[in-house]
Specification:
1 helix
Length: 66
């Protein structure tokens, strides 16, 4: 079953993304938390740091904050 993650940046910007059902919670948090992602609208880049990761599947919600 596919999992999803809700990501929150330092400015409060949020988005949801699908993640592999085989990805562990730890590896997902390691991949996103504390990293910078471009949340700008082309052609302007806007790199923001992810400070909160919420992972959802059918049974569990895992929250990790920076």
């Amino acid at each position: 079953m596919l999992k999803s993650a809700k990501l929150t940046t330092t400015t409060g910007y949020t988005w949801k993304t699908s993640i592999s059902a085989t990805a562990s919670y730890e590896s997902t948090i390691e991949y996103f938390l504390g990293k910078y992602f471009d949340v700008g609208i082309y052609p302007i880049e806007n790199l923001e740091k992810v400070v909160k990761v919420e992972i959802f599947d059918a049974k569990t919600t895992v929250v990790s904050e920076f």
